[in-house]
Every structure is written in structure tokens, then in C-alpha cells.
Amino acid sequence: MELNQIVRNPFSLMTDPAAVLHAMQHSNSLARLRGQVFHPLDKPLLSAVPDDVAAYDRRIDRELND
User: Which residues contact residue 51 at a Cβ distance below 8 angstroms, ignoring those fewer than 6 apart?
Assistant: First the structure.
């Protein structure tokens, strides 16, 4: 199959990794993309649990497991 036909047919691309790499390397659309790295700002803040809350959690867990 000719390369242009392979590139236009996504199912053919799944069976030919070399054609995928070639299409990516010669893609004008991909070349125009700007590369950016985004870091999440909403990282969970894990704080220490007070002793009384931890004891309550353990008691509930024991009751559920019995």
C-alpha cells in the first residue's frame, strides 16, 4: 500500500508502526504545535490526622471488619 494511503487510513497505521513514525515525523500539523509542560496546581495536601480522629477511624474499621 502506498504511504499516502496508509497515512489516510488510521486502521492501516495501527498495523504498521514504521508508517506511524514516518507520518509523525513529516506531519506539518504536529510540527506547528507548541510543546508545553503543565504541572497540576491542585496537589492534595495530606496533613497529619489528630490522634482522636485516627482512634475513631480504627474503631469504626474494627467494627466493620467484625
Answer: none
